[in-house]
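DM between two lab members

TW: hey, do you still have the DsrE family protein entry open?
JB: yeah, one sec
JB: this one, 121 aa:
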Amino acid sequence: MTIRNLVIKLTSGAEAAERTAQAFTVAAVAASSGARVSLWLTGESSWFALPGRAEEFELPHSAPLPDLLEAILANGTVTLCTQCAARREITEPMLRPGVRIAGAQVFASEILQDGTQALVY
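TW: and the structure you got?
JB:
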């Protein structure tokens, strides 16, 4: 079986709770199913890169965001957009363990790999 790559770019946060939960759910399920998953936090989702922020998120009938995030981190990568971090004055030492900051060059290299599917939420 070929391992597939899945890159998900999430632009929403708590203001679009269903879209946000969908992105985390798809990423966690794919990662748990053996896909190489890379979740990119951009825009308002940037805040989920900080400790405690996923724990504040609630959506009825949705898996808890901290559990989904931990599943993604255990089996894939979570990246905070460089420009989004700078606009929010988020720095590396402030990040939840396992989250990295990277920019467009890294994003482009990930989505241009053969066998990669990209989703934007």
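TW: got it. The mean pLDDT is 95. The beta strands are 5-10, 36-41, 76-81, 99-102, 116-120.
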